[in-house]
Write a structure and sequence with these properties.
Structural class of chain B: alpha/beta
Distance between the termini of chain B: 32 Å
Radius of gyration of chain B: 23 Å
Number of strands of chain B: 8
Largest sheet of chain A: 9 strands, parallel
CATH class of the largest domain in chain B: Alpha Beta
Helix content of chain B: 25-40%
Helix content of chain A: 40-55%
CATH class of the largest domain in chain A: Alpha Beta
CATH architecture of the largest domain in chain B: 3-Layer(aba) Sandwich
Shape of chain B: elongated
Largest sheet of chain B: 5 strands, parallel
Order of helices and strands of chain A: HEHHHHHEHEHEHEHHEHHEEHEHEHHHEH
Oligomer: heterotetramer
Structural class of chain A: alpha/beta
Number of strands of chain A: 11
CATH topology of the largest domain in chain A: TIM Barrel
Strand content of chain A: 5-15%
CATH topology of the largest domain in chain B: Rossmann fold
Number of helices of chain B: 7
Strand order of the largest sheet of chain A: 7-6-5-4-3-2-10-9-8
Bound molecules: cobalamin, pyridoxal-5'-phosphate
CATH superfamily of the largest domain in chain B: Cobalamin-binding domain
Radius of gyration of chain A: 23 Å
Largest interface: B-C, 47 and 47 residues
Strand content of chain B: 15-25%
Distance between the termini of chain A: 32 Å
CATH architecture of the largest domain in chain A: Alpha-Beta Barrel
Number of domains of chain B: 2
Number of domains of chain A: 2
Strand order of the largest sheet of chain B: 5-4-6-7-8
Chain lengths: 517, 248, 248, 517
């Protein structure tokens, strides 16, 4: 600890975050969403899509919803229908339902008890499958070997075509990447279904599908063996389908997921309630699957000024921490985000970056922390960009970041080329090998610029949290506190997919995930 | 204009024609690959072309850096630029002109269409905060701005334009991979052509950092704005075109 | 060989043809200059060409970075490379071959000619210390090496070659500004042609990081070695040529 | 002082350097050279060249030498001839001498006394001109303003054409250069005369001529006024004519000169005695002219390994310091050289660079120190090169270097392009503005890698100096101690231009320079 933060202030900040977060958890507990229910069906083993590509979980859920209020959950009506022997299995049921030949009801009494038990068995099997994948990961890491050092080197691929992504990801791993993230196509987060199958037509990213997950994980397993280190795979549990994607990630042994409590609200204009409900469920799944989440505070600094808004990053990290722990995630699973986004023209910009990065490091000493590269102030001057990325890497090394997302010199130009990635990795390697040890010699003066700035940001965070504890998080979001985006609680997409839970509501997935920790 | 002399790239001496080039070839690194790199440079008009760096990237690709001289001449007098063909007005002048010629507020509907969610650019033009020290269009008393934000579907945009009786529609496109910006813009302009009679169609303006400003005709829009556009330029353009039209 | 497929540069998708280019134009920075940059890129075969960065450097120059697609195809089967047309020998084999065919030591005279003082390259080939893990020519028992060092005048080199009865003369040229290396090499080969009857002339070898290996004929030398050359390659070449010659 | 070097060891190192240097000074004092004598004539006002371009100082000296032993010096024979009214002035005398119509002799008795007095007057006028230039510089710096901060930003131009150099130098100054160096054409150091006039035909550099000096200084004076800071000009007092070039630099108000006690021996194969004699004279001139010298230790690391040979840099710095002080230079005039030349693939290479740079900084606390960029391990990968230069800049800032020679990304490709220089300055500015203050937070652990390495290099330096104190510097040079170059004392060029001084030897320039300090 080189900053020597005031412990009382730190404790106060966490207490305030709890105070701000608790009403939101209450809100999340009181509602369900179409995606939470579909995720439940997926955990019970329903997959695939109809001829038009609409997933069976969507067809089935829509049919149920036509007959029964969403607030009761999907489990009781569906397993009730199965028990009434309408079909042998979920798929047949979904097909029939799609054809309009099944009617659903909310079972009561013994019927309800039996339906509940059956659903718990079915969903339990899915959760067991996730458990197996987690054990498998632990075994592979042990057998094959882990990333050789921290920070883990995190690289994105984004061709839009899974079959181009795979060789690029393998090449990146060979060149030193410890983590591969497959960026999603621009449109996916607003789709209220998860596309099916292997896909080749994304824009600036590749669709997140179960099959794409499977193909990429298999390819990286092969490469992991070849390299003697387990290469982690990341995708996005984000957008309108985050609960389902979280489930698929658990089932296909993805290792990390982008998953932020407010990103969808702020940057995809998804309804806040929808988001918080989906969030909580998806984090419960991640907790169970042993997946590390990556939060999205870096995004605020692409729209708001990185110096002025530094404390909003800290506040958001504290909230993400609170929500994550409440959902069952442990410290080592908290890849809290922050970024190197100060305008390079600001005097002492590098030292200010160090101050911010150290503050995060020392506020969350056990979290891996995800350190994001400059994007906003990157320009078409790729030489300057390459240098900035080098200093970003240095800041990461000096402040002990856990996950280093590798910056690309073409940030302001194109989605990364093969050569950009190779050059970027060369940059990271040089900085870590040549100057990584400089941390030993980095001792910010106790009242120097760095320590003073870190204290100032912490102070501003406590002030903001104090105000939010009075007015509520939803109001703060509506006011443009984060990333300057104003999002009212009743606006945004996907609100029609939210329902207040009825007294009869039952979700075996939530039950298992909440009771078995 | 046509007085301008011909020029060549400049390394360290007038006329030396020197340039730097880098690219990847899908070839394993060997002498043939280096020769192939030189061949590409030659086809681009570099002679001599020196392959100064060749780095294998896995077994199938090689990255090259090439330095050399190009013999092409550049004729600045042949350059077509979309020069500003309207006066640059202050907010005050814009307001006065709208008042005078329209006798009502000029209505602007804007947003990012398709799946593009990059709103910083359109916000820089529309929001009060503005860009590069200039206030955005919301600041202009005589402009009514409806900012639809990100990921607006084209039918939704047309609908709002009709409902708001928009004089101008401003669309931003930032993602260019696989020509997304061009496809989306064409879809948008076609939809407006379908929905409106030619003389009632709102002005169509697109902008974004990777647009070619000379492509307006091709894209079926009235104007294209590129990187570094300021709100004042856009406001002045709108006033110029809308008032000219209403005068006609 | 001719089986090889045609290739294009690779950005992030097979066949996308993407390249990066940078250069300076002697023009003040404005839209015309940016258009001129795009024009140059177009002449180089880039379409579309995106001028992604333009930076004024003082009032008279602008620096550009351009990204874009080239449509040229590269045909690796047409690449001419100077492939090694002689066997690569170990020092032992070199020594044995010299002994067998010459029955005396093979004499090598080397140096940097002209005003060039970069000796690291020629030393890497000649000195015992060698290069890339291979010992230099001095290490070979059957080679007699006379390293004249830097800035050797051509007449002096010829004189020493005569005096030492050199079988081969090795010349290094590193400075290439204003084609110094080419001028010096031509001067050198002409001088040797003048001083020796064709059949008595020592082998002439030049090397340096910026030479084009296919230019031997043009320069009037027997072989050109480029960057990354190792001593073993040079020794093997010498033995191959000198022993072939003495056999003929 | 962050290294806390052992004072006794430091004192011991200096004592040893004195011991190694003293015999060389004795040697230098006992000899003169053609170039020292020609420099004397230049100070007395002789300039210009004949129709073939041979300078009049060469024509005159050669004529004198044909009649009188060089060991007597040129002053007595020349002013004796003038007093015998062979000519009204030096130029006419030189012309006549060149035509073979003058005979020279060594005057004796009263003739000698009168010739000596006349020569002292003539040369004294030249030295006064140098004094005036020094005062002028001081006044300009005061009036116009000095470089805004340390390190001074030092940029080279190297087109070969003075008329291309000038706008490039002015552009560089506008972009932030504090010092401009005009690199010399490859051949010049081996010419035993100084070319005349404005020149446009250098290879990889521009000839150092009095006219080129004048043109560039005038252009930079103009730019200095425009920018409100005095832009310094540098050239090379090196090669066979270093005494003359030193004199011309003093007369044309150059501000810094490359001037190393051994560079010519090692890298130009100039005879050691010739070099040491020329060295001492040129440094006496620099001392008088208020010129800062730049020594050439960086060059060793382009041929020898920067880790293995680190101590040879230190030893050479200590010798350069001793020779410089003996010649009258003051601490602020000692731009001792060192460089960032460790193979970037060496683990912790950046920290090793910091260790070496700090050692120099703390051994010579009052000297400006010239910090040279990576060259040897630069490749055609210009992106990597740009990054390395950034870390070089950072090392310069962290260790408080006085003069920072700006590295170019095209180091391994071409002499710098206009855009390379612009990009390089942008690099320097970013690093100094964003991270310059990091020095405040840089505290090498007392027994960490950096401090340990610095102590080790100092220890190895003392060992080497101890050996050299026994065997002598000439032997060490012959053995390849510096830059792996082996140069025997009786080898190398220019030995025929050296003569042992006779009892009658007289040189008014040396007399004035030595007596008036
Ligand atoms: C900020 C940012 C984001 C933010 C956006 C926040 C927001 N609310 O806008 C976040 C983090 C959310 C984001 C996400 C993504 N981004 Co983004 N992002 C950027 C970034 C860093 C800066 C863009 C920016 O704000 N520029 C500043 C504004 C002011 O400039 P501007 O847009 O050019 O606007 C000016 C002019 O162009 C013009 N203008 C623009 N629009 C209009 C419209 C009109 C009518 C007019 C008159 C003028 C005009 O005026 C403006 C002022 O001068 C760029 C990289 C870069 N440095 O450029 C990448 C970049 C644009 N993003 C990119 C990508 C791929 C994405 C993702 C798709 C990645 C993924 N798969 O997850 C996601 C998803 C976004 C989506 N669905 O579209 C790519 C696009 C690649 C390409 N060329 O196709 C870039 C280039 C990064 C990269 N190299 O990969 N991104
Ligand atoms: C070391 C060095 C020096 C040292 C030289 C020390 C010495 N004793 O050689 C010093 C510091 C003295 C120096 C000085 C100068 N240098 Co210098 N120097 C370099 C540097 C950093 C490395 C060169 C090197 O040693 N490479 C390593 C060797 C092993 O590689 P190589 O030469 O390519 O040799 C290999 C092959 O090419 C081949 N090979 C080479 N020769 C031969 C010969 C034969 C027969 C064969 C078979 C093979 C062969 O085999 C070798 C092993 O694989 C380069 C920049 C760079 N990073 O490349 C600049 C560079 C070569 N120097 C340059 C210049 C301009 C100069 C100066 C002229 C500057 C000046 N005006 O003062 C001076 C003066 C030198 C002069 N008169 O020639 C320029 C040349 C620009 C150009 N393309 O024209 C360069 C490129 C730097 C730059 N960008 O400005 N330099
Ligand atoms: C936390 C988080 N989620 C998701 C995304 C990706 O956006 P989308 O959901 O549109 O794929 C990002 C962007 O990088 C992010 O930071
Ligand atoms: C001390 C010193 N003198 C002189 C030179 C230049 O060499 P030349 O004398 O050949 O111009 C250098 C090279 O950079 C040097 O470091």
């Amino acid at each position: 600890m080189v900053l020597d933060l005031d412990r009382t202030t730190v404790r106060q900040a966490r207490t305030l975050a709890r105070k701000v977060g608790r009403p939101i958890v209450r809100l999340a507990k009181a509602h369900t969403t179409v995606s939470v229910e579909r995720a439940t069906l997926r955990l019970a083993g329903l997959s695939g899509a109809d001829a038009e590509g609409t997933p069976w979980v969507n067809r089935l859920l829509d049919a149920v919803r036509a007959d029964v209020d969403l607030g009761h959950g999907v489990a009781l009506p569906v397993w009730d229908a199965l028990l009434r022997e309408e079909s042998e299995d979920l798929l047949t049921l979904a097909q029939k339902a799609a054809a309009g030949s099944v009617r659903f009801r909310l079972p009561e009494g013994r019927d309800a008890t039996r339906a509940a038990a059956a659903s718990r068995r079915a969903v339990g099997a899915g959760i067991k499958a996730i458990d197996k994948r987690r054990t498998e990961r632990e075994r592979l890491v042990r057998r094959i070997g882990d990333a050789p050092r921290q920070p883990w080197i995190y690289l994105i691929v984004a061709t839009g075509d899974i079959y181009e992504d795979i060789p690029q990801a393998q090449a990146a791993a060979r060149e030193g990447a410890d983590v591969i993230a497959v960026i999603r196509s621009t449109g996916q987060s607003l789709l209220d279904y998860v596309p099916e199958g292997a896909t080749r037509e994304g824009y600036a990213g590749t669709y997140a599908t179960q099959e794409n997950f499977k193909l990429m994980r298999a390819a990286l397993d092969e490469t992991s063996r070849e390299l003697g280190r387990y290469v982690r795979l990341t995708n996005y549990a984000s957008g309108l389908c985050m609960p389902e994607i979280a489930a698929l990630a658990g089932l296909e042994r993805l290792d990390m997921m982008l998953n932020d409590s407010m990103y969808g609200i702020l940057f995809r204009d998804i309804n806040p309630v929808r988001t918080f409900v989906d969030q909580r469920f998806s984090r419960q799944v991640h907790a169970r699957a042993g997946i590390i989440i990556n939060t999205g505070e870096d995004n605020y600094l692409t729209t708001a000024d990185a110096v002025e808004a530094a404390h909003t990053v800290t506040v958001s990290q504290l909230l993400n921490e609170y929500f994550a722990k409440e959902a069952g995630l442990e410290d080592w699973q908290l890849g809290l985000g922050h970024a190197f986004e100060i305008d390079p023209a600001v005097p002492e910009s590098f030292r200010l970056e160090l101050a911010h990065a150290l503050l995060a490091r020392e506020l969350f000493p056990k979290a891996p922390l995800k350190w994001m590269p400059p994007t906003r102030h990157m320009t078409g001057d790729v030489f300057r960009g390459y240098l900035l990325d080098g200093f970003f890497n240095l800041a990461g090394a000096l402040t002990g970041q856990g996950i280093l997302l590798v910056g690309m010199m073409t940030e302001a130009v194109v989605t990364p080329w093969l050569s950009d990635r190779d050059l970027a990795l060369q940059n990271v390697r040089y900085v870590l090998d040549a100057a990584g040890g400089l941390r030993e010699d980095f001792r910010p003066a106790p009242d120097g610029l760095i320590a003073t700035r870190a204290r100032q940001v912490l102070g501003e965070s406590v002030d903001l949290l104090t105000r939010m504890a009075d007015d509520g998080l939803l109001d703060a979001i509506a006011d443009g506190t984060f990333g300057l985006m104003r999002r009212p609680a009743d606006g945004g997409r996907g609100l029609d997919g939210v329902a207040r839970k009825s007294a009869a509501y039952l979700n075996p997935a939530t039950q298992i995930l909440e009771n078995e920790r | 204009m046509s007085e301008q002399r011909l020029v060549r790239p400049y390394g360290d001496t007038t006329g030396d024609g020197m340039v730097q080039l880098s690219f990847t070839l899908p070839l394993p690194h060997d002498k043939v690959a280096e020769g192939a790199a030189a061949q590409l440079a030659a086809k681009m008009g570099m002679d001599p072309a020196l392959v100064v760096h060749a780095k294998p990237m896995g077994p199938d690709f090689t990255f090259f850096v090439v330095y050399g001289r190009v013999h092409h001449l550049v004729d600045p007098s042949l350059v077509e630029v979309v020069e500003r063909d309207y006066p640059l007005l202050t907010p005050k002048e814009v307001n006065a002109a709208v008042k005078r010629s329209l006798r009502r507020r000029l209505v602007v509907v804007g947003g990012c269409i398709g799946t593009d969610a990059h709103t910083v650019g359109i916000d820089a033009i529309l929001n009060i905060k503005g860009f590069a020290g200039e206030k955005g269009l919301e600041y202009y008393r005589e402009l009514k701005v409806v900012n639809l934000g990100a990921q607006v579907a084209v039918p939704e945009l047309v609908e709002r334009a009709v409902a708001e009786r928009a004089d101008a529609v401003l669309v931003s496109q930032v993602v260019t991979q696989r020509d997304a910006h061009l496809l989306n813009t064409r879809e948008m302009s076609a939809a407006f052509r379908e929905a409106f009679a030619a003389e009632r169609r709102p002005l169509l303006v697109v902008g974004g950092p990777r647009f070619d400003e000379t492509m307006a005709g091709d894209l079926g829009v009235d104007r294209v704005f590129g990187r570094g556009t300021t709100p004042g330029e856009v406001a002045s353009f709108l006033v110029h075109r809308v008032t000219t039209r209403s005068a006609a």
